[in-house]
Amino acid sequence: MRKDIIKTKLKEIEESIKIVEENLPDKFEKFVKLGLIKDGIYKRMEFAIENVFDICAIINSDLELGIPSNDEDIVDNLVMNEIIDKRMKEKLKAMKGFRNILVHRYGKIDDRIAFNILKENIKDFWLFMEKIEDFLRNIG
Fold this sequence. Notes:
It contains 7 helices and no strands. With 140 residues, the protein is mainly alpha-helical. It has one domain: Four Helix Bundle (Hemerythrin (Met), subunit A), CATH 1.20.120.580.
């Protein structure tokens, strides 16, 4: 298991999420006026989500859980092998959807929706990191 790579990616997620939390205002009206800071928040979220899925792919590969055709297969393999639970699977699916909006900017990002997603779901990254750290401890 490539624990060192996973731990580095966990650290990168933690760094990004802390930066987002420090710069995410309480009110939407302040968020929408952030300009480059808002763009930075979006980029950090994209980076964190990519790291989440990189970690999932590394675990899937190193444990030889199957040859996936996409990220959903990887997550399914992790659920089947009890590395993550179904609730976390749903959270990861939502992260992936948000990442796709950020990356592809379907039309223009709706800042109000993005702000609400960030406020309500940023804690999911901490839950994911906790589950992966527990997993790493338990595999020796």
